[in-house]
Amino acid sequence: MSSPASSSRAFAFATLCAVGLGCASREAPLRADAGDDATDDAEVAVDAGKLPPGAEAALAENHRAFCSSYAACFPAYFTTYYGDVETCVARRLSASMAALFGPGSTLTTDDIVLCGKSYGASIACDEILRLFFENPVVPADCRLRGTLPNGSPCAGSDQCKSGACRSTSAGCGVCQDRVPSGGVCTIDIDCAEGLACHRSKCTPFVARGGACDTTTPCHVADACVAGKCEARKKLKEACSSAVQDCDFTTWCHETTNTCEPIGLGKLGTSCGQLSTGGYALCEFGLKCKGTTVGVCVDAAKLGASCFKTGLTGSQCETPLVCTGTCIQPSTDSCR
After folding, report:
1. Which member of 127, 152, 264, 324 has the lowest number of beta carbons within 10 Å of its beta carbon?
2. Which of 163, 45, 158 lies closest to 112 in space, CA to CA?
3. Domain locations in the chain as residue ranges
C-alpha cells in the first residue's frame, strides 16, 4: 500500500482464534481466509467424539456471537471472507474442533461456556479489531492452559503450559513463553498480552488521546495523526490518504481524501488499491492475489496448491492454512 499506516489493509481480517475459545489461540500472520460454501467444512471437520459432551454446541454458540457482531461491524470484510453468518459459524467451528482438545489440553465444556459469557452475545467493534489485529488481554475465563512444556508441538494454546502456541510455517505450532515488554518479537502473539510487536520489540499500545510516533503504536481502532492517537474517521468524513486514517468500513480515497465505501470485485477484476483511488476486496469465494494491487482469483480448497500471501492473505478457504498446499492444522497432524 501507499503508506505504512495503510499496510494493515494488506492483511485484512485474520483467521486467528478469537472470542470465547472459538478456535485454538494460535495466531497466523494477520490474514483472513474465505471459501466458496459451507458444505466443504465436512472435509476438514474432525471426529466430534474427542470433544467433551456439550463442547461442540458451546463452541458454536460462541462463534455465533462473534460472527453476528463481525457482520454488523465490518460488512465488506465479513462478506468477502465468510459470506453469511451460518458459513462463518460452520467454518470457525470446524477449525476449533480440529485444533482444540489435543494432547495436554485441560479444556472443558464449562470453560468454553464461561468464556462465551465473558464476551456476551454482542461484541463491540473496537474489541473485534483488537482480537484480529492486536494481542489483547483476554478475560480470565478465556485463558487457555495445558500441560505441555515449551518446545512441544501443538495445534492450540489449550495444550501448552505457557498458554501460547506459536504457529510455524508448517501450519502447526510450538509451545512457548510470551515475551515481556522490551523483548524481541516477530508478531504480536510473541509478546505478553496487551503488547504490540512494534519494530521487532514488544511495546505497549498508546491509549486514545496519547502521544504517538514511529516507536509508540496506537490501538488499531485509532490512527496516529499529528503525533496523537485519534479515532479513525467515518464514512464521508475528510481524511488523509497518506495516513489512511479511515475506519475499517471505509477507505480514504486518494483523490478526494474522503472516507469512501470499500468495493467488492468479481473474478478477474482488480482488487486492493485501485487506479481510481479507491479500494476493493473480492466477492465471497474469491481471493485477492497481489501486493498493492491484485486480481480476484478463486479461493483454493483442501489439498490444492495455493499462494501464501496477498491482499487478503493466503488463497486457501477458511479454515485452511497455506503451506504450499491448503491444509487443516489439527491435533492429529500437529504432533
Report:
1. 324
2. 158
3. 4-327
Nearest Cα neighbor of 288 from 325, 320, 313 is: 313
pTM given for the model? 0.83
Is the separation of the CB atoms in 328 and 319 below 8 Å?
yes
Is residue 17 within 8 A of residue 24, CB to CB? The reply is yes
For residues 71, 75, 80 and 84, what is the CA-based torsion angle, rounded to 10 degrees?
A: 40
Per-residue cell: 158? 489449550
Question: 245, 232 in Cβ contact below 8 A?
Answer: yes
> Among 137, 53, 134, 51, which residue's Cα sits nearest to residue 96?
51
Segments in 134-201 forming alpha helices (H) = none
Enter the C-alpha cell of residue 73.
Answer: 461491524
Residue-wise pLDDT tens digits, 273-323: 999 999 999 999 999 998 889 999 999 999 999 988 777 678 998 778 898
Beta bridge partners of 265: 282
As a whole number of angstroms, the distance between CA 132 and CA 72 comes to 15
Q: For 210-240, what is each residue's pLDDT tens digit?
A: 999 988 999 999 999 999 999 999 999 999 9
